Amino acid sequence: MSTVLCVEPLPLDVKETDVEQFFGRAGTVVNCDVLANASTRISKVFALVEMASNRQAEKAIAQLDGKMLSGRTVRVVQAPFPSR
């Protein structure tokens, strides 16, 4: 079963490919959505990342929480809603 993670704060110019690469170190990224303002397309400073399994999500949290992504130290936590 996949697990969704929340990552924040992101730089305003971060791309989904940047986030996917970052999380790819910990396992298979099923889906990645950098939330953005619909009219300006500027990041809303967080992303939802779906990892292929709970084990990979736990590995991502352990390896990536508190690390630098595109010049910012990010926080990685399990999303506060059930996975798909």
Secondary-structure map:
Blueprint: E1 3-8, H1 16-24, E2 29-36, E3 43-51, H2 54-64, E4 68-69, E5 72-73, E6 75-78
Antiparallel strand pairs: 1-3, 1-6, 2-3, 4-5
Q: How would you describe this structure to a colleague?
A:
The mean pLDDT is 90. The protein contains two helices and six strands. The protein has helices spanning 16-24, 54-64, and strands at residues 3-8, 29-36, 43-51, 68-69, 72-73, 75-78. It has one domain: Alpha-Beta Plaits, CATH 3.30.70.330. It is of the alpha+beta class. A hairpin with a 2-residue loop joins strand 4 (68-69) and strand 5 (72-73). A four-stranded antiparallel β-sheet has the order 2-3-1-6.
Quick rundown:
The chain is 24% helix and 37% strand. It is an alpha+beta fold and 84 residues long.
Shape designation: globular
Q: What's the name of the CATH homologous superfamily?
A: RRM (RNA recognition motif) domain
Low-confidence stretches: none
DSSP strand count: 6
CATH architecture descriptor text: 2-Layer Sandwich
- The biggest beta sheet, please? 4 strands, antiparallel
SSE arrangement, N to C: EHEEHEEE
What portion of the residues fall into strands of 2 or more residues? Answer: 35-45%
CATH top-level class: Alpha Beta
Order of neighbouring strands in the sheet with most strands: 2-3-1-6
How many whole angstroms does the radius of gyration measure? 12 Å
Number of domains: 1
Class by alpha and beta content: alpha+beta
Look up the CATH topology.
Answer: Alpha-Beta Plaits
Mean pLDDT: 90
Q: Portion of residues in helices? A: 10-25%
**End-to-end distance:** 8 Å
Count up the helices: 2
